[in-house]
Amino acid sequence: MELDYIENINAYGENVVRLYNFDKSESIKFRDLIKEAIIDKQQKLDLSQVDFIKPRNCNLILGLFKTDEGILRADENIFYCALTLEGFENMLKLLEPFCKKETKGHQYLYEIDNPTDFLFSPAGTW
Fold this sequence. Notes:
The chain is an alpha/beta fold. About 25% of the residues lie in helices and about 30% in strands. Strand 1 and strand 2 (about 15-20) form a beta hairpin.
C-alpha cells in the first residue's frame, strides 16, 4: 500500500491524498488499524509508522476531532485527517467492500466540502 499527495487534480484546484497499490489483505489490515487505534483506543494513527504503508511524498495522521474537517495540511508534507468518531465509523463502512473481494474500484473515504479528498483506490485511479 502506498500513500501520496496529488495537487490540482481538476479545474477547481482540488487535491487528493491517496492510498493505492494494495490488495484485499491490506484493505483488511488498514480497516482493522482504524478500528483498533482510532475507534477503540481513541489514539492517533500515523500512517508513516505502519509497516505495510509506503509514504511517497507525504505523511497522513488520522485522529479524532470535534467536527468532521477532513484532510488538513500541517506543512508541505504532513497532513491530518480530522474526523469525529462517527466519521471514522462511516469510513469503516466505506472500506468494507475492499475487504470482501479484490476490486479495481475506488472510494472517497469521506464526503466533506474540503479542498483535499481522501481516496482509497487499489489501482490508483479515480
